[in-house]
Write a structure and sequence with these properties.
36% of the residues lie in helices and 26% in strands. It is an alpha/beta fold. The strands form 3 sheets. A 6-stranded parallel sheet has the order 1-4-3-2-5-6, sandwiched between helices. A 6-stranded antiparallel sheet has the order 9-14-11-12-13-10.
């Protein structure tokens, strides 16, 4: 996949560009349906499948406190590439760009710069200043400029609308099995392992890899999760506590992960953590001994969950490292 992060780098329109536009936060099953449609249409005519998105997410610029994102830009790029897209255009979004009218966006960017020949959009998509570029506008513009517009309708899984908004709600509620149904994969957090208080191993008996969670991040429901940890090309089982560690009176929001059968020093190294299931809420224990007993019980349950999910976990790792 060819990645463009500056429109100026696109020196000529793409060959029969079949295009979709959107924020694509989470790259959920609904987004994947859009990408499949674009890829299929491009393949039929020997054209180029093109995805246009924005960084940062427009709401992060226009209403910073109104949204917590499901995926990082890095993860979004990885997932779009995995969908078989030929070209990804990531447009830098700021308040100046937000003033672009829908007409100007279509004429100057989609037509002149990208060379759109077919456009595929989701049922609820709108863009441009004041969200002028809705479905009716796009269809009218397509008739005027000679490109067909295909609208992909809403997709449901188990009677749940597949949408980024719904997925955020489910993440906050800790409903990771439902999240997986809508994403088509496990929900993932990622980052570099931070130096903690050094209590996990010496005091409690279970060393942990700690990831700091920003208040700007989408934070799952606090508590203990069964997890799959991805590090350095390998996958491991584990349990993670997301919260403030009330037993020791912490005030920092962190994800502390005990990785099964793992002894490497990974401070400062990147890891990825798939959240499989929320086991219990965060709880304040009387001290390290009571906490340690509970962790042992959590680990036993986690092994049972991981064993039951063994096939899905294997596929998750194979997909991750086959590219």
């Amino acid at each position: 996949m060819k990645l463009y992060s500056d429109l100026a780098d696109i020196t000529e329109p793409f060959q029969h560009a079949c295009v979709t536009i959107g924020n694509f936060d989470g790259v959920h099953l609904g987004h994947q349906m859009l990408f499949s449609e674009v890829v299929a249409r491009a393949h039929r005519v020997g054209g180029t499948s093109v995805v246009v998105t924005f960084d940062p997410h427009p709401l992060k610029v226009l209403c910073p406190d109104s949204i917590r994102l499901i995926s990082t830009t890095e993860q979004k790029i990885e997932l779009i590439e995995k969908a078989g897209i030929d070209v990804l255009v990531v447009i830098p979004f700021d308040r100046d760009f937000a003033a672009t009218t829908a007409d100007a966006f279509v004429d100057e960017i989609l037509l002149d710069r990208i060379g759109v020949r077919e456009l595929v959009v989701g049922y609820d998509y709108a863009f441009g200043r004041g969200r002028q570029g809705n479905i009716d506008f796009l269809r009218a513009k397509g008739r005027e400029k000679g490109f067909p517009v295909t609208v992909v309708e809403a997709h449901y899984e188990n009677s749940m609308l597949v949408s980024s908004t719904k997925i955020r709600e489910l993440v906050v509620q800790g409903r990771m099995r439902d999240v997986r149904k809508l994403l088509g994969r496990y929900y993932q957090i990622r980052g570099e392992v931070q130096m903690g208080r050094q209590r996990g191993g010496p005091v409690v008996g279970f060393p942990t890899a700690n990831l700091r969670i920003s208040k700007e991040d989408l934070c799952p429901k606090r508590g203990v999760y069964v997890t799959q940890v991805i590090y350095d090309g390998k996958c491991y089982g584990g349990i993670s506590n997301i919260g403030y560690n009330p037993t020791f009176g912490e005030n920092r929001l962190v994800a502390e992960t005990h990785i099964f059968d793992f002894h490497d020093d990974i401070y400062g190294r990147p890891i990825k953590i798939n959240l499989l299931r929320h086991l219990r809420g965060e709880k304040k224990f009387s001290g390290p001994e009571e906490l340690s007993r509970q962790i042992r019980r959590d680990i036993q349950v986690a092994h049972d969950v991981l064993e039951a999910a063994q096939k899905d976990l294997l596929l998750s790792c194979e997909e991750k490292f086959s590219r």
